Amino acid sequence: MKRYLLHVAALLAVLMSGACSHPVVSYKTIEVDAPFAMEGIRECIFPAQDFSIADYGAVAGGEVSNTEAIARAIEACNKAGGGRVVVPHGEWLTGPIHLLSNVNLHLAEGATLRFTDNPSDYLPAVMTSWEGMECYNYSPLLYAFECENIAITGTGTLAPIMGTWRTWFKRPKPHMEALKQLYTMASTDVPVEERQMAVGENNMRPHLIHFNRCKNILLDSFKIRESPFWTIHLFLCDGGIVRNLDVYAHGHNNDGVDIEMSRNFLIEDCQFDQGDDAVVIKAGRNQDAWRLNAPSENIVVRNCTVLQGHVLLGIGSEMSGGVRNVYMHDCEVRDSVFRLFFVKTNHRRGGFVENIWMKRVEAEAMQRVMEVDMDVLYQWRDLVPTYRDSITRIRGLYMEDVTCKRTQAIYDLKGDARRPIREVELKNITVGEVTDFVKRVVNAEQVSEENINYTQK
């Protein structure tokens, strides 16, 4: 009898264990071809359970704030082991959305998340960054910190209300003073928690999407219509996919996607229409990046289309942690960009840029097909002092099978005599018309070209 009771107790324990266990995220691996060693990218497969925000008190119509209801749905999903938090068809007003691990925020067909433009809604401040410098600032509209297995999917739309943010585009004197203050704190190693920037008239705009120190990210199939600042910013992240997005944002600093101090990413089948650069690889600024010591590496961009933007593929200018192993191929520019391939840095940055590839790209009009500029300082040239000179090492830039209709110049390499650019190769470049000059090479070595065809006006 005793043995029987022990067997029953054991069986009950097993049954209870099964009843209390949660489903778990699984993965499939996407193999990526690249001209460097590239491990497969893991894609999250979330548990098949849904948590509709309507079931947690959200109200459609764009009049009632649903910030708390969405947070409840995310928390329930996380506690249940993961799944989809579903935003149904309709317009849903909200403040900041903070994701948790194992949560897929799914935007159903016809769903629109409308984010408020009241800065106080985005307080308390969270740990984020501003142009390569860590700080506490207004919460990004969609934010995750130290999360694993997170996603935004579905064919719906992210459409922030832009009224207040547009007035902040102007960068008045108090804003510029705040930038100087942050730069000084970052340059003198003031602890990040003391860099409180969401105060007064600093007017430091939040990102639309900012994932900070996260792993296994999936962004798939949704639309973006405008952004207060950088549109998609993946910061100190490891592993992810950005796929099938339709991004339109023509405000100030509206990059399409910024991969910063992050590794193992695939960007594919996206369309970008930007007021700034389209695809940008960054790696932090100056002392902050040297402290973090996290290069951006192993990034593939393929089958993407840019309608308008400043740059198709940009490296920097925040790149002090180093950028290596980037491969863009089979992309298209349908309207115009300023530069097709642009590496930008300055004498304060240090770091390195190496092993960057661009192949099979078709484009319309631009100012430069390829440009490297080692003296890009923008407003910072006279705004703040140089705390330390550190010259970037640039080596191994490769462009092949590129066609464009019109450009001012094919390639423009402006290096630094203290550390010249090295190993630049251009092969099979066809340009319908060159309107200014073909090439300029200053402080660059081992520059080679093969089969460059053009008509000079």
Mind explaining what this structure looks like?
There is one protein chain. The chain is mainly β and 457 residues long. Helices cover 14% and strands 49% of the residues. The strands form three sheets. It has a 26-stranded parallel β-sheet that branches. The protein has a two-stranded antiparallel ribbon with strand order 1-2. The protein has a two-stranded antiparallel ribbon with strand order 9-10. The radius of gyration is 24 Å and the shape is globular.
Beta strand count? 30
Low-confidence stretches: 1-20
Mean pLDDT across every amino acid position: 95
Taking the sheet with the most strands, its summary is: 26 strands, parallel
Q: What would the principal axes of the Cα set say about the shape?
A: globular
How many alpha or pi helices? 6
Helix content: 10-25%
Give the tags.
457 residues, 6 helices, globular, disordered N terminus, mainly beta, single chain, two-stranded antiparallel ribbon
Question: How would you summarize the topology of this molecule?
Answer:
Elements: H1 2-20, E1 26-30, E2 41-45, E3 50-52, H2 67-79, E4 83-87, E5 90-94, E6 97-98, E7 103-107, E8 111-115, E9 126-130, E10 133-137, E11 142-145, E12 148-154, E13 157-158, H3 163-168, H4 173-187, E14 209-212, E15 215-220, E16 223-225, E17 232-235, E18 238-243, E19 246-249, E20 257-260, E21 263-268, E22 271-274, E23 279-282, H5 286-292, E24 296-302, E25 305-315, E26 323-344, E27 352-373, H6 380-383, E28 393-414, E29 421-442, E30 444-456
Parallel strand pairs: 3-4, 4-7, 5-8, 6-11, 7-12, 8-13, 11-14, 12-15, 13-16, 14-17, 15-18, 16-19, 17-20, 18-21, 19-22, 20-23, 21-24, 22-25, 23-25, 24-26, 25-26, 26-27, 27-28, 28-29, 29-30
Antiparallel strand pairs: 1-2, 9-10
